[in-house]
Amino acid sequence: MTYQTKSKIFVRDDGEAGLQVFSPYTGLFYNVPAEDRTEVLEWLDGHRTTVSQCYLDSIGLLWKTTFAKVAEQSLIHVPTSISVSLDRLLVINWLITGKCTHKCPYCYAQDMRELDSCITTEADVNRMVSIILSYSPLAVVISGGEPLLHPFFCSIIEKLYGKTGIIVDTNGILLTEELVQFLKEKNVVVRISVDSLIDRNDRITRQICDRKRQPDNLSTVLKAVELCIIKELALVIHTVVTAANKNDLLSMGEKLYCVGVHVWKLMQLVDIKTNEAKRLTVSYQSSEHFSRLIKHSVNAMWQDRMRVIIQENNPRSLNATVLVSPDGRFLTQAVSGNKKIPLDPNYPNMPREEEIRKRLDLWEHRKRYMGE
Question: Model's pTM, two decimal places?
Answer without folding.
Answer: 0.92
